[in-house]
Here is the input.
Amino acid sequence: MKRITIQEIATFCKRKGFVFPSSEIYGGFAGFYDYGPLGAELKMNIKEEWWNTFVRARDDVLGIDACTITQHAVWKASGHVESFTDPLVACRRCNAKHRADHLIEDALGISVDGITPEQVNEMIAKHNLRCPRCGGELSSVTTFNLMFKTFVGAVEDEAHVAYLRPETAQSIFTNFKLILDTSRIKLPFGIAQMGRVYRNEISPRDFLFRMREFEQMEIEYFVHPDKINECPYLTKEILDYKLNVYSAEMQKCNKEMEKMRVEDALKKGIITTAWHAYWLAVFYRWLVDLGLNPERLRIRQHLPEERSHYARDTWDIEYLFPFGWKEIHGMSNRSDYDLKQHMKFSGKDLSYFDDEERKKVIPHVIEPSQGVDRLFLALLIDAYTQEEDRVVLKLNPKLAPYKVGVFPLVSRDGLDEIAKGVYGRLKNEFTCFYDEKGSIGRRYARQDEIGTPFCVTVDYQTKEDNTVTIRDRDTKQQIRVKIERLEEVLRKLIRREITLKELG
Ligand code: ATP
Here is the structure.
């Protein structure tokens, strides 16, 4: 089946009210997108799922919500002022700016992640690469810092420079001691945060894939430095879980990715630490549970030259987008890099006191970092299904913007009054959409297209026996249910505890 292209999904999102180009009436703003009514609901549902699963349901993870503008000292210590850069080349003729590694990848169809500035210059010269916009000659490479700078207070000078955060992680590290002291949580534990981040991407592209303002959901998971291989949560079920694995070695030897049990990846030393393996498996499984096709997911290890300045080892969870395999989730082993840097620059003690050993240690960190918008995009692409003349958005019911559509078969003979009553009741628990316009087939199609998993219809039989029909978006099957049982049945259907078929 032909997959939807990124341009088609962007058009669909705009047409149905999921996502709009930001300030569209002024021509849009590259790299910025606004979520419309349906998109806002879907995005909130994704974030809620993440927060419920990884913060509320766990005893070992605490959530915070920190500022998005942060002082210079934090980013100096973290290394971002120095190293959070991308390679940039400019056109000598039209002055267009290009991200050098992307320009090479597009021109030659190869991946050059982690390429050095010297290598960029060599490749541009060797392949005589020109400006993709006008064919002009390209400058030599420079580096461009992706952080958005601002000034705090009424004076605009170097002493008042601050940054819009490019990741949520750093405020977790700067608050580490306060969280430790106020919660008295013990290792191993995680601190989670979701929120907006900002990156002045040189060339934003591919719709929600590369934006300049987006959201992240991150956990910094702290582990005793000597216990990075002691993960009590690596149950048999997780060890048996199969992942598509694409290690640095496989990439170097031009091998294919391999489907592998988590335990085998650990035993073969492909994934080197137990905690890293645990979090990779947990997130992979979570993504599959949300609705991503497992065949379009893989974990890919960064090549050594590709790793960020803070990372000891990094794996990305990648999704097969219509434009190729790309990261939707990054997972680094940040070791004790960040806590040590902040200790050095702030002069404060950010160690953890180990009661058993009666000594201070600096915990090591595994960081599951999930972009909300890239996940939103992947979920929409996977859910988008063309069925003959109509589109069905097969979203997981728990993520769908509207859970239930409510219709009277016809808007007369009192059916509309009953339907409005049903709608009023269901609205207390579910996001619902009431519709009495057009044929019933047309109304079903409208809900199918925006992913509403169930539609409830009031018809003439309702007047006789107080039953309504529930229709399933994916199978089109319908069953009759007593109005008083609607909430209970819909609750189970949405959680996928039962199917309509089983009820029928
Ligand atoms: P890339 O290599 O694609 O630029 P990255 O390695 O810089 O990504 P991370 O710093 O690991 O990304 O960020 C964690 C997550 O944040 C990513 O997995 C992705 O989901 C999301 N993310 C990063 N950059 C962007 C962006 N410009 N637009 C949308 N989401 C992003």
User: Anything to note?
Assistant: The two ends are 31 Å apart (CA to CA). The chain has a mean pLDDT of 96. Residues 299 and 317 are 4 Å apart (CA to CA). The chain has 19 helices and 26 strands.
